[in-house]
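In response to the reviewer comment on reproducibility (Comment 2.3), we provide here a single inverse folding case reported in full, input and output, so that an independent group could reproduce the run without further information from us. The structure tokens appear first.
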């Protein structure tokens, strides 16, 4: 029979075995296999993975959360998942989160899409009001996009008026209303729609992503920065079938009054490789104010770009827009891209009975650009648009098409610009139009 002291000693010993050693923190990692997920590529694991997220949210003390959900090696099929404050996500090497192809596994909710909010399907990974979020690792998010792409094209070929929002397709990652976000190292593969959508966030780092979608994938933007500020995108590779990086906001004749769409500001893009897309860095199609953008030390490689512009500024006739302080420097081309496209974009526009607004493009520089391209490109706005202070400097490129369309530009400066080995000067009669 135990004495009182013996009982106390036995209880203390059992507690030592059940809890971490003194000075050692409790584990704040929850593996999805511990909550029942099975990585066989067939089992639907939505409930098990969401349970791991919920458990991680309870760690850290005081109900504040502080856990990391770990995805180990294996292929884990899932529907929409919802991260919570204090919960990070890590994918090990050879870990795959594979999106379900059943649209019912993405229940509709109010979400931001194409410059406004509506009931639509969520992304595979969703995070709202999740300050200090980290999504990391060497694993893959696979959107299983082929059935969604096929449905879109079937409906589009039957009715050419079909729009993106007519055919619901899940994004891969949607992050909203948060600050201090880091997304690093992952492979994003075959998204049904946009790959990474960041809305109303500040202090965001996107580093080392490899983003790829099939050539038949409609509107598979690589990264959409929507109404966000202080965003750094670096060391990423883009091989998609729409805009590689799109800077977005609101749209329509009253867009400047939209308090849910603050300016896109202070964007830094560096050391990225662009292999395929419809635009390397695009402003629009939904955008109002975009300013202070730097794109540098990037390469545009491969024969499949087919005239795709590096600098693509979409000027919507139905939307007031202000694009300013945009700087592209140290860019190397090795393929068939076009250098610049500043022009009207009229797809789906609607004045809704309002008078046409005007747009302004100011203080744009392209400098230290070399290599092989299809053409210099186009700078020409809608009637009434202001395009001014455009500088081309230290450019030495080979092009297949020497003609450039430039009209309605005030203060277009070319310094040390050589095209196909010859000094290039903007035609004064074109520039004066």
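Designed residues, in position order:
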């Amino acid at each position: 029979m135990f004495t009182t002291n013996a009982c106390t000693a036995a209880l203390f010993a059992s507690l030592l075995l059940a809890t971490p050693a003194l000075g050692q923190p409790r584990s704040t990692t929850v593996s999805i296999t511990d909550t029942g997920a099975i990585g066989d590529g067939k089992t639907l694991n939505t409930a098990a993975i969401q349970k791991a997220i919920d458990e991680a949210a309870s760690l850290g003390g005081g109900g504040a959360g502080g856990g990391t959900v770990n995805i180990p090696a294996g292929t884990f099929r899932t529907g929409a998942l919802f991260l919570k404050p204090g919960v990070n996500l890590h994918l090990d090497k050879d870990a795959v989160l594979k999106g379900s192809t059943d649209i019912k596994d993405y229940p509709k909710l109010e979400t931001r899409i194409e410059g406004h909010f509506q009931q639509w399907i969520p992304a595979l990974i969703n995070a709202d009001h999740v300050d200090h979020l980290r999504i990391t690792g060497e694993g893959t998010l696979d959107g299983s996009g082929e059935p969604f792409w096929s449905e879109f094209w079937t409906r589009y070929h039957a009715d050419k008026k079909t729009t993106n929002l007519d055919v619901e397709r899940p994004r891969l990652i949607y992050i909203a209303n948060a600050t201090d976000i880091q997304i690093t190292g992952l492979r994003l593969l075959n998204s049904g729609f946009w790959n990474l959508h960041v809305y109303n966030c500040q202090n965001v780092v996107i580093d080392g992503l490899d983003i790829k979608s099939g050539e038949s994938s409609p509107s598979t933007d690589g990264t959409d920065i929507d109404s966000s500020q202080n965003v750094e995108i670096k060391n990423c590779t883009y091989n998609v079938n729409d805009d590689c990086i799109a800077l977005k906001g609101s749209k329509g004749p009253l867009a400047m009054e939209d308090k849910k769409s603050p300016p896109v500001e202070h964007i830094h893009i560096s050391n990225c490789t662009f292999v395929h897309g419809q635009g390397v860095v695009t402003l629009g199609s939904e955008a109002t104010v975009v300013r202070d953008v730097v794109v540098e030390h990037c390469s545009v490689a491969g024969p499949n770009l087919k005239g795709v512009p590096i600098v693509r500024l979409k000027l919507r006739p139905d939307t007031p827009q202000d694009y300013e302080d945009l700087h592209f420097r140290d860019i190397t081309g090795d393929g068939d891209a076009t250098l610049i496209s500043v022009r009207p974009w009229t797809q789906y526009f609607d004045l809704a009975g309002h008078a046409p607004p005007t747009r302004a493009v100011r203080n744009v520089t392209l400098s230290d650009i070399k290599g092989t391209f299809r053409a210099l490109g186009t700078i020409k706005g809608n009637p009434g648009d202001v395009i001014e202070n455009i500088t081309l400097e230290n450019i030495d490129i080979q092009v297949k098409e020497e003609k450039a369309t430039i009209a309605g530009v005030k203060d277009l400066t070319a310094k040390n610009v050589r095209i196909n080995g010859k000094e290039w000067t903007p035609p004064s009669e074109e520039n004066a139009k």
